[in-house]
């Protein structure tokens, strides 16, 4: 009897141990909301959605914990410039940047949003080629076209970083596992720019000309987008012939043209977006609004157009007030309160509703290309007249006032530089380009035109802080942001930018 | 195939029992007849159970007597016994011996025979698996009888336990009804928040975790802590397992200690009805005195003037115009409002508990019904709870026993609306709110209307930083409903009687929580286009939890003085949580409060979300306890844990433990030491593993973007694969001493311990963001958590009439980092150039809690005093021959100190206050903490119990003082600022008012204070009525009591509540900051306990 029970007990124990061997299966659980990497990267459609995911991250942080990239690019491009002034809602960090008092603790200098998008691009670059094994319908050309998109996007991100921080770490592999985590040192600005060029050149030879849909051609990267980026990158690196060639590729394609400067100009170009003039825009829409509405309108607005914009940049025709630069009042600025109109208007005089704040973020458009080419031609030398013609194309469309035409001597590089820069300010106001334009022109030929920068600071920074700001800008290292202090705490290999040590 | 094995398992288990039922072949049937009568009056008794019982005590067949007391019972085996039982009578059991007639007179039970049947071998402590007598316990435990706590006005048992057990630190996260509690056993072994211990109720773990994705729409998951929704009246005793050898029994979730709770069970006897009542009155003590409207309106223009140099323009800032010609603003901004007072009320609570208990030889029952209702001291907060429990024991035979426990709890908990961050909680906003503002709006004619005065914004800002707190308290909603049902089934079978016992437990736990919040426009005053207007949220979270435990206990009957018990246990855990959340806004009216009513959903701020998560774990444990002569005792075991939260490579963990005890007093040489009743020494070592908090973290997960791009959906890698993540292992070392002496009147427990956490799990460790992620969960280093505990229980007086007990506990605990990953930062992320910031460093081999900052030296009275001086006190002269004035952070910030500014010590005498002048200011680790209290009993009728708790030698940052005296923004300030610096020459300790500028409230020793305290926690007087007296009115017992709590606190600390640190020190960079604005709530409880 007892024996029998003992045996039964032993059998029970054996069942236990068999159970524990089947534990493995019982313990393997898969997440139900989302998909794992092992299940992903099987079809070309999945590559496409990962590529789209990279673009989508341009509109906002997927986790919602950071500012959107367009907001960073606006702040980086305009705060240090001379075209905006602070409203009551401005943060102390923003004021500090405007007053040339950026400390490493300034949250404007966080670069995490940019690197997040870089990581999404890296993920596609690392894993998309593996799909070839699983999906027979994916061709090499298609794969390369996808890779061209994300490499161009990664190039653009590093281009922003190099222009804002100069020396930054180059992370070119995806972080997909905690094994991939590394502590990198900085690469020099030149190394970063070389990488940007390499990415864009790959994209140049592999990107598609069109996706067969006008809106998608403006929202995703085409060969023309890559050319526009290349033109900008070459200009930054003082490679003028290459820049002019890249611009010519776009101009000669016949795919783009300026929007006619009539009554519907503003609505077509800025409210609707994706016009014939546009080359690349971040595609905000009703379900993903940009952050500009609260930033620029409410009674606690953070920024307004500086009075200098209407007084000096566009000016007013005192003789005949029907003559107006269309880019001034109701183009860039609502003159009644100096609100920055580009992101707020529907038409001259009528404002967007709060839930219609989907103005696209312009990265490149045709007018920019024309002016970039003009700048390149001026530097190449001997082609100043050609440059003047390009500028005039832009000015004619905008009905620019004569008062802003300085009639420079086409052979005088310095006068031409000033003229082109001023025209860029008029044409591309509040599009996040001002600081980079000023810095590019100032730093050329070993800071030959530092005066441009110092004059701008003298204009933009209030009296009490002017001298200290000018003194700081005497040192070229101060033209770049410090690395956010928290990054330094986390990575002993990172060294603070020299001015902020 | 493997699945098949699973399905085979159950039938096999059932097969184990098969032979029991088919043991002996039945013999020829006979019939037994007879009559049952009362022994006293010889009258026949009806409905008496007469049953044939086999040798294991199992009923084979039974009948009941008729109205004349007659019965006839078919007998299947003449060797069996017959059992005669009737409620209120003694049960008789007789051998049949071939009888065919059996007349029986049975005797009534005496009234007082209401005793628990288990009175064998002294007190025993259950570690949840093995029941071991207290004498032979080799592990560190603390134990408390629920009886000792029932007088307190606590809604849950965790509140009542506060400060009662050495080494157990329980603090409330807020004083509102239903707020969660944080429980720490011996500090934290992990440097993350949320390290609550495992709660085990009647031998099965009790789920207290909240799914990680369930946190939007509310401030923090602590708010959901439905922790321990067991009525305190149902609890019999609580045991805390403290050392790792003890917690090793429970595996991965027990790494932070175990709280074992046993509920009351049925006992043999006539049904006894118990009723207890508690009535509680709670009151918020006076808050810090704040400026009234006039004083405030005086301060703000001065503050702005000091900054801008020009007077505040009251043409645009109407708030301070005080212009009688503008009756609207004159009235609305011309009041002296006590905002705190306007949202405070006196809280009342009532607690009713009705239970019935009783049973016979075969079946016992305990059933209870409780109703608890509490209104909080802040308007709009309350808690209603209804709970029922039924615990049934059925003894089939001496070898087979069933237990069925079913508990159900319903809670309805309206909390204050939480606008997102703690700073914007209603009491904080009320404290900071402009006192010159009116609660209700005056119209243009200056006539008071019944509408709340909620301007969309004013000088103080707008929602969420400020709003109308009275409107918020009355009109906003944040209600949590909970329904939880936990059926628990247990079967125990003695395979070999008294030697091999198999116990199977299975517990289901269905927990449904619904949270409903609504933010009305009338509280925020914002325009209707914004999403903070009529914002409605509905969150539903359901947890389904199945746990099983199969124990095989082997106790061989050894010869001589050897005793051995061995346990094999197999445990499974499967927890599923499903959540659904909806957030909409802008419904048409403040009365349409459900997200289902037509409202706006299309906005990135609003969302609909659903989540699903599942966790499974398996534990296999072997444990054995051996003792020789009760002198040398060894307990050892090993546990295997496996968790679905790990990838296959790291999934299994093996954790051994060993503990020993030497009873010195049992040795021969101790025989002559008469005053020692028991003296033993204990040593233990154990490992336990902690698994990560989140599911699926070992997958590289891809999620869909929350928005489309060009109408196409995108996917992004939302989390990286954590393939390096492994078990966090806690190596616990404990030495203990127990002493009982002087006729059992002195009882001393001393414990010294060190818990070393290896591969410390750290959640959200910051990493360089160029990796594409800014944080990762990682095993980062080695943390020690060490300390000692002393617990003394004495009975100094014990006479016929008087019994005086005195209990005392004291403990110390420290956290020290031994090793750290290079990814872990070495200092906290603060800017010492900003006001209100303190520095903390990661110092290997040093305890946590050190605070660094500037040294405050008062206020510069005039211009001359701001001249910088060198080490000798002589003025520093600049290159141009002029005196140099003190500056802040030269050359980066380069602020020149002005008269009336705060003065900081220039440690290095360089004329600039900067990071070089930062010094050590204090440490937030209490040197000791503990509690003590006497209990005096007179003639068994009157009992007075008092309890004190204390902490000694620790510094905290008085955050309230900082924010109420900084005069930096437009928040209301305390009356201390009335003595602020105003004119050159003023000698004071409060700097000038300076709006949004200056460095008057840098992190300095001005706010670091010694917060040692002694608190008179509670006092109770209880009167128990005499049994004899009660018998006459048909009652079994009756007692009444009165308790007062939080009467007085002795401290030098100037803040509101020195018992801060809701979470204490949780990491190397914790700066313990006291932001409390009122002392703890004073409570008065009256109670009544009766039984019939």
Element layout with pairings:
The complex is a heterodimer of chains A (501) and B (1092).
Chain A: H1 2-21, H2 23-27, E1 35-36, H3 44-56, H4 69-78, E2 84-86, H5 92-98, H6 112-127, H7 140-165, H8 189-206, H9 214-219, H10 223-236, H11 240-253, H12 265-272, E3 278-282, H13 292-296, E4 303-305, H14 307-314, E5 333-334, E6 339-340, E7 345-347, E8 350-351, E9 361-365, H15 366-380, H16 384-398, H17 413-427, H18 434-447, H19 450-460, H20 463-473, H21 485-490
Antiparallel strand pairs in A: 2-4, 3-9, 5-6, 7-8
Chain B: H1 2-21, E1 30-38, E2 49-53, E3 59-64, E4 70-75, E5 81-85, E6 92-95, E7 104-106, E8 124-126, E9 131-133, E10 141-145, H2 157-161, E11 168-172, E12 181-185, E13 198-201, E14 204-206, E15 235-241, H3 244-247, E16 258-263, E17 269-283, H4 293-308, H5 327-332, H6 339-342, E18 347-359, E19 363-375, E20 382-395, E21 400-414, H7 426-432, E22 440-442, E23 448-452, H8 469-475, E24 477-496, E25 500-519, H9 521-524, E26 535-554, E27 562-584, E28 607-628, E29 632-643, E30 652-663, E31 676-690, E32 701-704, E33 715-719, E34 728-741, E35 746-758, E36 761-766, E37 775-779, E38 781-798, E39 802-820, E40 850-853, E41 856-859, E42 887-888, E43 895-896, E44 902-904, E45 912-913, E46 919-923, E47 928-938, E48 942-952, E49 955-958, H10 959-965, E50 1008-1010, E51 1013-1024, H11 1027-1032, E52 1037-1051, E53 1073-1074, E54 1082-1091
Helix pairs in contact in B: 7-8
């Amino acid at each position: 009897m007892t024996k029998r029970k003992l045996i039964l007990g032993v059998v029970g124990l054996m069942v236990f141990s068999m159970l524990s061997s089947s534990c493995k299966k019982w313990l393997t659980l898969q997440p139900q909301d989302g998909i794992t990497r092992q299940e992903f990267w099987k079809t070309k459609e999945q590559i496409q959605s990962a590529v789209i995911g990279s673009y989508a991250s341009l509109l906002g942080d997927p986790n919602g914990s950071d500012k959107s990239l367009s907001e960073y690019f606006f702040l980086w491009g305009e705060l240090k410039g001379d075209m905006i002034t602070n409203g009551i809602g401005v943060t102390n960090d923003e004021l500090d940047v405007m007053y040339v008092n950026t400390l490493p603790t300034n949250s404007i200098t966080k670069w995490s949003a940019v690197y997040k998008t870089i990581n999404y691009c890296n993920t596609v670059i690392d894993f998309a080629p593996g799909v070839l094994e699983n999906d027979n319908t994916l061709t090499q050309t298609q794969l390369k076209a996808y890779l061209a998109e994300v490499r161009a996007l990664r190039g653009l991100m590093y281009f922003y970083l190099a222009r804002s921080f100069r020396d930054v770490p180059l992370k070119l592999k995806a972080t997909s596992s905690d094994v991939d985590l590394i502590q990198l040192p900085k690469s020099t600005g030149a190394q970063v720019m070389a990488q940007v060029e390499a990415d864009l050149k790959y994209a140049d030879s592999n990107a598609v000309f069109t996706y067969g849909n006008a809106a998608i051609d403006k929202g995703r990267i085409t060969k023309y987008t890559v050319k526009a980026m290349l033109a900008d990158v070459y200009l930054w690196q003082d490679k003028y012939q290459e820049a002019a060639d890249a611009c010519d590729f776009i101009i000669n394609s016949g795919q783009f043209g300026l929007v006619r400067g009539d009554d519907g100009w503003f609505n077509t170009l800025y409210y609707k977006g994706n016009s014939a003039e546009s080359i690349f825009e971040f595609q905000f829409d009703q379900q993903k609004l940009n952050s500009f509405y609260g930033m620029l309108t409410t009674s606690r607005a953070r920024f307004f157009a500086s009075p200098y914009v209407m007084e000096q940049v566009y000016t007013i025709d005192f003789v005949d007030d029907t003559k107006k630069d269309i880019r001034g009042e109701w183009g860039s600025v609502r003159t009644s309160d100096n609100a920055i109109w580009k992101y707020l208007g529907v038409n001259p005089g009528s404002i967007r509703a709060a839930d219609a704040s989907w103005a696209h973020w312009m990265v490149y458009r045709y007018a920019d290309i024309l002016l970039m080419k003009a700048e390149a031609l001026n530097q190449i030398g001997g082609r100043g007249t050609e440059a003047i013609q390009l500028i005039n194309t832009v000015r004619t469309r905008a009905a620019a006032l004569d008062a802003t035409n300085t009639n420079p001597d086409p052979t005088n590089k310095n006068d031409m530089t000033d003229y082109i820069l001023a025209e860029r300010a008029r044409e591309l106001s509040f599009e996040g380009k001002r600081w980079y334009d000023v810095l590019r022109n100032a730093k050329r030929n070993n800071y030959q035109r530092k005066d441009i920068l110092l004059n701008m600071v003298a204009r933009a920074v209030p009296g009490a802080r002017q001298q200290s700001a000018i003194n700081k800008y005497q040192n070229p290292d101060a033209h770049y942001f410090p690395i956010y202090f928290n990054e330094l705490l986390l990575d002993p290999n990172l060294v603070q930018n020299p001015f902020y040590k | 195939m493997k699945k098949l094995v699973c399905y085979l398992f159950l039938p096999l288990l059932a097969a184990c029992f098969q032979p029991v039922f088919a043991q002996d072949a039945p013999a020829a049937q006979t019939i037994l007849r007879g009559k049952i009568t009362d022994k006293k009056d010889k009258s026949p008794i009806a409905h008496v159970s007469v049953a044939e019982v086999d040798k294991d005590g199992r009923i084979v067949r039974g009948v009941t007597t008729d109205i004349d007391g007659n019965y006839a019972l078919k007998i299947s085996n003449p060797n069996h016994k017959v059992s005669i039982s009737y409620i209120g009578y003694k049960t008789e059991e007789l051998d049949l011996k071939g009888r065919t007639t059996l007349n029986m007179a049975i005797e009534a039970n005496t009234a007082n025979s209401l005793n628990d049947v288990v009175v064998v071998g002294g007190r025993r402590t259950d570690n949840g698996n093995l029941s071991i007598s207290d004498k032979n316990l080799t592990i560190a435990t603390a134990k408390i009888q629920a009886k000792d706590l029932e007088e307190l006005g606590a809604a849950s048992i965790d509140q009542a336990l506060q400060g009662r057990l050495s080494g157990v630190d329980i603090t409330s996260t807020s004083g509102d009804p239903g707020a969660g509690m944080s429980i720490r056993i011996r500090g934290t072994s992990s440097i993350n928040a949320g390290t609550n211990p495992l709660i085990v109720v009647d031998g099965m773990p009790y789920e207290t975790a909240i799914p990680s994705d369930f946190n939007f729409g509310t401030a923090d998951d602590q708010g959901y802590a439905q922790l321990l929704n067991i009525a305190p009246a149902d609890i019999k005793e609580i045991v805390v397992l403290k050392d790792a050898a003890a917690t090793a029994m429970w595996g991965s979730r027990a790494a932070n200690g175990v709280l074992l709770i046993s509920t009351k069970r049925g006992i043999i006897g006539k049904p006894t009805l118990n009723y207890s009542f508690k009535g509680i009155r709670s009151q918020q003590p006076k808050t810090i005195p704040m400026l009234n409207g006039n004083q405030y309106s005086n301060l703000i223009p001065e503050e702005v003037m000091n900054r801008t140099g020009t007077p505040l323009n009251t043409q645009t800032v109407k708030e301070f115009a005080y212009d009688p010609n503008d009756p609207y603003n004159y009235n609305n901004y011309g009041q002296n409002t006590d905002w705190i007072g306007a949202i405070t009320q006196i809280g009342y609570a009532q607690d009713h508990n009705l239970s019935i208990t009783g049973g016979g030889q075969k079946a016992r029952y305990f059933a209870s019904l409780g109703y608890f209702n509490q209104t909080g001291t802040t308007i709009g907060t309350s808690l209603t709870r209804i709970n029922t429990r039924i615990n049934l024991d059925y003894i089939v035979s001496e070898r087979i026993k069933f237990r069925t426990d079913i508990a159900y709890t319903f809670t309805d908990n309206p909390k204050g609306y939480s606008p997102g961050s703690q700073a914007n909680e209603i009491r904080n906003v009320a404290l900071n709110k402009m006192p010159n503002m009116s609660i209700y709006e005056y119209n243009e004619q200056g006539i008071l209307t019944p509408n709340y005065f909620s301007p969309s914004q004013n000088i103080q800002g707008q929602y969420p930083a400020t709003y109308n707190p009275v409107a918020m308290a009355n009109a906003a909603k944040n209600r949590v409903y909970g329904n939880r049902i936990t059926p628990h089934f247990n079967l125990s079978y003695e395979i070999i009687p008294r030697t091999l016992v198999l116990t199977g437990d299975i517990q289901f736990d269905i927990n449904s929580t619904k949270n409903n919040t609504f933010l009305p426009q009338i509280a925020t005053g914002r325009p209707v286009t914004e999403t903070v207007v009529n914002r409605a949220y509905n969150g539903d979270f359901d947890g389904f939890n199945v746990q099983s435990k199969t124990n095989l206990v082997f106790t061989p009957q050894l010869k001589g003085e050897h005793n051995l018990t061995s346990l094999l246990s197999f445990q499974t855990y499967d927890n599923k949580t499903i959540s659904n959340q909806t957030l909409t806004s802008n419904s048409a009216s403040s009365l349409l409060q459900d997200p289902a009513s037509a409202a706006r959903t299309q906005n990135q701020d609003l969302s609909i979300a659903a989540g699903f998560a599942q966790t499974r774990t398996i534990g296999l444990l072997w444990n054995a306890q051996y003792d020789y002569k009760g002198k040398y005792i060894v307990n050892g075991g090993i546990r295997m844990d496996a968790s679905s939260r790990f990838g296959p490579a790291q999934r299994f963990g093996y954790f051994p433990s060993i503990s020993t005890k030497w009873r010195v007093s049992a040795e021969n040489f101790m025989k002559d030491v008469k005053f020692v009743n028991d003296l033993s020494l204990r040593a233990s070592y154990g490992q336990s593993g902690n698994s990560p908090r989140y599911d699926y973290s070992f997958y590289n997960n891809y999620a869909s973007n929350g928005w489309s791009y060009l109408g196409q959906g995108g996917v992004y890698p939302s989390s990286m694969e954590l393939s390096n993540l492994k078990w966090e292992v806690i190596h616990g070392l404990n030495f203990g001493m127990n002493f009982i002496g002087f006729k059992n009147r002195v009882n001393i427990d001393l414990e010294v311990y060190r818990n070393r956490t290896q591969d410390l799990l750290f959640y959200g460790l910051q990493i360089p963001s160029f990796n594409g992620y800014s944080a990762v969960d990682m095993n980062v280093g080695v943390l020690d958590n060490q300390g000692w505990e002393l617990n003394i229980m004495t009975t100094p007086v014990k006479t016929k009439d008087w019994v005086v007990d005195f209990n005392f506990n004291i403990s110390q605990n420290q956290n020290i980092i031994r090793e750290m990953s290079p990814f872990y930062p070495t200092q906290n992320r603060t800017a010492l150039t900003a006001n209100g910031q303190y520095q903390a460093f990661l110092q290997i081999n040093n305890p946590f809690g050190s605070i660094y900052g500037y040294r405050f030296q008062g206020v510069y009275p005039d211009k001359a005093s701001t001249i910088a001086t060198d080490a000798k006190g002589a003025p520093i002269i600049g290159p141009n021959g002029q005196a140099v004035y003190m500056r802040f952070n030269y050359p980066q910030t380069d602020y020149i100190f002005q008269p009336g500014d705060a003065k900081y010590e220039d440690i290095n005498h360089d004329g600039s206050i900067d990071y070089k002048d930062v010094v050590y200011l204090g440490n937030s680790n209490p040197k000791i903490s503990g509690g003590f209290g006497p209990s005096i009993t007179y003639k068994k009728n009157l009992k007075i119990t008092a309890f004190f708790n204390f902490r000694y030698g620790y510094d905290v940052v008085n955050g309230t003082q900082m924010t109420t005296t900084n005069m930096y923004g437009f928040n209301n300030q305390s009356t201390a600022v009335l003595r602020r610096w105003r004119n050159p020459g003023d000698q004071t300790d409060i700097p000038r008012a300076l709006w949004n500028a200056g460095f008057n409230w840098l992190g300095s020793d001005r706010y670091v204070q010694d917060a040692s305290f002694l608190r008179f926690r509670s006092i109770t007087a209880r009167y128990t009525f005499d049994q004899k007296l009660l018998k006459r009115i048909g009652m079994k017992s009756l007692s009444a009591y009165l308790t007062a709590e939080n009467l007085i606190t002795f401290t030098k600390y100037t803040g509101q509540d020195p018992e801060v640190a809701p979470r204490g020190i949780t990491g190397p960079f914790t700066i313990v900051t006291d932001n409390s604005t009122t002392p703890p709530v004073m409570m008065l409880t009256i109670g009544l306990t009766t039984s019939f």
